[in-house]
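Please produce the structure of this protein holding zinc ion.
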Amino acid sequence: MIASILLTLLLGTHSEAATNLVSNPNFDRADATGKAPAGYELTGNARWAWCGYSDEITTKGISLNGFDAKGSSAGSVSQLVTGIQPKNGKWLKFRFRGRAEDGFTVGNDLVGMKMGFYSNGGTNYLDSGQRLIYREILKDRKDFAVNGNDGKNGATAWRSYEFEEMLPFAEVDAVKLTVEFKNGNATQNKFSSFYITDFSLQQSAKSSDGRVAPTAKQSAQVSPESTAGMLPLGGRWFYRPAQGESVPIDTAGHLSGDLNVTEANSARLFYQDERLENPFAGNMTAWLRKGNLDVNRQLVNEDRYLTDNVTITFNASGYMALHVRNIPNHPTAKFPDTVGTQGYNPSYIQEHNDTYYLPVNPVKNPNAVAMTDRDANGALNMGPVGLAVNGVVFYNPYDANMVDASNIMDRCCGHPSPDNRYHYHKYPICVNTPFVDKGESHSPIIGFALDGFPVYGPYERSGEMAKDDKERPLNAFNAHFDDVRGWHYHVTPGKFPYIIGGYMGNRPQRSR
Ligand SMILES: [Zn+2]
Ligand SMILES: [Zn+2]
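Below is the modeled complex.
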């Protein structure tokens, strides 16, 4: 009785997780001609294409090619999204995944995202907004050159680009989303594309930084959404039940049974630092590809969608159980590598069936020790030492025979081990996070070490990576402390130990 009253109290004000309003968002369906993706308009040097190289497993998308034999190139991809209703929220967030190859260059910064606003079902043009993104491409090239080169080791990697705008007029009922470039001046028709693999448009009542409406003074200072009305799960974790959702809680309002989190409710699972993050949202499904091995070590003949690549169970045990199939949700090289681009790695990417138990409320161990040279003291085990938010495991910096493994990875910084487990030894730039990391503030979370402490992306603040932080230098564990995040690890591109240097918390007792 009391439990049901508490549950009712939990159902306060909340919004549903925003849905993607774009149709054919992954460019996989063809239009009537069979030559272009359904629902999109392509102009100039834009092609529907496989977005990668012959030694990669990748997906269909758009190639904006910066090379044109006639001289300057230009092109665009766009979709008119109809059915926009102001009552569903004033804020529109346009986002896409892209990877600019090293040879893709343009003059005058002319790579941009555009939103065009229309009424009368998209026939009456009203206004538009634009954001240029070329400097972000250049910044990534500069910051992550140290991670590897374009063909290997994850230098130029997949990332998200984002553009947020408020609906300018109440009569807007359609929005045209465009990614375009002009003044393309690539010098050869190779490594000269900007690949785009998905489009999304979300409509919501608030902006990403909590604004309801943009008044001049209010903008950057509104406090983030609070945890009021949410179910505390321990540590920094919270859950916001859906309307009518039954969650097992005791009379004190604590979890008394299992709470299962999948992609469907991943936007209701929050981690609190300076804001509320949904670390796993958008990362819990994956494609098991033809040529991979399934969980029974059988060769997969047809791509299969895994709705449960990552699932999480919270309960009263003090541990969160991450069940993972360990299939990456981003492009990979083809493994086994028979052409030598990945060091002739003989292993497969295989579907696994692993459960990792991470403390919900990690505790720092005063007696913890970090790795000595070549991990001679065994501070970090071989095999999994943590998990990225897409369920792919982090390893320590070494492969068999204690060779530094950070230079024999595919373009997304991963490769499979002899037991066919795909893993990262350093910052996997391809791992998507719900907050886009533009390098303009502290990076978002990209994963968790097995001791339960979070692993953040590379940046400490605008223009500075954590590895270069003089105010709060990283210790031998690759961690430091601040008041809003507590103790946390950072990935350190180009700087050993790349992910974690040891468990600063208690060494996992029941890791798998
Ligand atoms: Zn390895
Ligand atoms: Zn930090």
